[in-house]
Specification:
Elements: H1 14-25, H2 29-32, H3 34-39, H4 44-71, H5 78-86, H6 88-122, H7 129-145, H8 148-174, H9 193-204, H10 220-257, H11 261-270, H12 272-307, H13 325-343, H14 345-356, H15 370-400, H16 415-434, H17 439-459
Helix pairs in contact: 1-8, 1-10, 1-12, 4-9, 4-10, 4-16, 5-6, 5-15, 6-7, 6-12, 6-13, 6-15, 6-17, 7-8, 7-12, 7-13, 8-10, 8-12, 9-16, 10-11, 11-12, 12-13, 13-14, 13-15, 15-16
Length: about 475
């Protein structure tokens, strides 16, 4: 084991980075939640317009991240920006939250989607969903422990398979001949545009994780902005075309009523074969997102481990595979524990018992049905909190480092970062409102980061103590 990766590990091309972004972002929301999204908009054109608008907002955010990633390219992404802007305590709290709540929760949630479709495809007992999800995390963690090349080729293969399946879905849906109607027959029954927008923004979530591997990208001054902007552009086009295919196949009211629009659309076009094929596509799509997170976020944990002695184990890199093996193993272990806690009766009882010790009500498991919904709701508020903090850090770093070389600058300053911060405020409000019953559960691990930081500082040699 070594403390630092070798310099020559900058092995990702621009298309590797684009593949990583597409693999992480196009996960499951567009295949599962489009019916709910269109049920909360007044007409089909508003729905398609929201997908474009949220793609545009993500593109604006990518412009800001492109500047940050090329100016501060060390592995770790937002951890580095927040540490430089606000000091090591905020950077540490961000890194701890990623490990304890945000990214491990996302890994678990997406693994659950893979597992739910896997039990249907293989025709096995639904009680095995938990173990399929854990197996997905364990298997992809093991692959990434073999090194950066193993991780990137796994990601490229999954992303290519996903792209092929999406092309087939779009082509099949748009070429379907039928009498699908776009006429509006009933008014909006749900919360409305706010819910539709937060779900779409979640569908675009994850593009920022490419910043975690900035130091692994070759010719990063040129390729990081290209990767972020190309990735968002391709994803936006795919999302709009996929939803157009749903509308062409199912019609507006049919899409609104569908809980599995991809499956329903392909069943209508290709029969039971189409339904089975789209289930396999969702499995591959979910695995691609999980692998992208496992690969990229482990680099963040390794950077935190290199800076903070309490997590020094995470900063150890394998001299053989040039991978942050301990970071990968700890990250995978926490994600598997989360899956167990929300996916089994024993796990749920343990969570409720823990909440009872802080005088909180038991989790309303019925509201957050299934592992995906629970883990998404639990991780979203902290995700949006630090997303907003990063937007603020953008302004702080412009002031603190006025003379530093910025190979790429977000255009129309300060419009881009202001729009990005506005999107984050909306996301934070919506996610917090949705997850209100879970907030005590979220607060405990989040606040645990405070004493851990002070412990880390006490472990630091006196000669290297930092002052903030």
């Amino acid at each position: 084991m070594s403390d630092q990766p070798e310099k020559e590990t900058a092995a990702l091309s621009v298309w590797d980075a684009v593949s990583l972004i597409i693999g992480i972002v196009i996960g499951t929301t567009v295949f599962k939640m489009s019916g709910t999204i269109f049920a909360n908009v007044p007409d089909p054109w508003t729905g398609l317009g929201l997908w474009l608008i949220c793609g545009g907002l993500s593109f604006v955010g990518a412009l800001c991240y492109a500047e940050l990633a090329t100016t501060y390219p060390r592995l770790g992404g937002e951890y580095n920006y927040l540490t430089r802007a606000f000091g090591p305590s905020i950077g540490f709290l961000f890194g701890w939250s990623q490990l304890a709540i945000i990214q491990t929760g996302s890994i678990g949630a997406l693994s659950y989607v893979f597992a739910e479709y896997a039990v249907k495809v293989f025709g096995v007992d639904e009680k095995l969903v938990v173990w399929f999800a854990i197996a997905a995390v364990a298997g992809l963690t093991a692959l990434n422990c073999l090194g950066i090349h193993s991780g990137k080729w796994t990601q490229n293969l999954l992303s290519a398979s996903k792209t092929l399946g999406i092309v087939m879905l779009i082509a099949g849906g748009l070429s379907a001949s039928g009498s699908a109607s776009l006429v509006v027959e009933r008014p909006v029954e749900g919360p409305g545009l706010s819910l539709a927008m937060i779900l779409i923004l979640y569908a675009y979530g994850g593009w920022n994780d490419a910043a975690f591997v900035a130091a692994d990208v070759r010719d990063r001054q040129r390729n990081i902005p290209r990767a972020l902007l190309l990735g968002i552009g391709i994803i936006s086009a795919c999302y709009v075309l996929i939803n157009a295919a749903y509308l062409a196949t199912l019609g507006f009211e049919g899409l609104r009523a569908s809980h599995q629009p991809a499956s329903d659309a392909m069943k209508k076009v290709f029969g039971s074969f189409g339904e089975r094929a789209i289930s396999v596509l969702v499995m591959v799509s979910a695995l691609g997102s999980v692998n992208g997170l496992v690969f990229s976020v482990s680099r963040l944990h390794a950077t935190v481990g290199a800076d903070h002695r309490v997590f020094s184990l995470l900063g150890r890199w394998s001299t053989w595979s040039k991978a942050p093996v301990w970071s990968l193993l700890v990250q995978g272990g926490i994600a598997c524990a989360m899956i167990f806690c929300v996916g089994t009766d024993a796990g749920r009882k343990a969570v409720d018992a823990g909440l009872a010790t802080i005088h909180a009500s038991p989790v309303p498991w019925g509201k957050y049905y299934g592992g995906f919904e629970t883990l998404y709701a639990a991780s979203a508020p902290i995700f949006w909190l630090f997303f907003l903090t990063t937007g603020i850090a953008y302004f702080v770093l412009r002031v603190k480092d006025p003379k530093i070389e910025r190979p790429f600058r977000a255009p129309f300053f300060p419009l881009c970062p202001l729009l990005f911060c506005g999107m984050c405020v909306f996301g934070l409000y919506s996610a917090t409102t949705y997850a209100t019953p879970l907030l005590p559960l979220i607060a405990v691990p989040f606040l645990l980061g405070v004493p851990l930081y002070f412990l880390s500082e006490r472990l630091r040699p006196q000669s290297s103590r930092r002052t903030e």
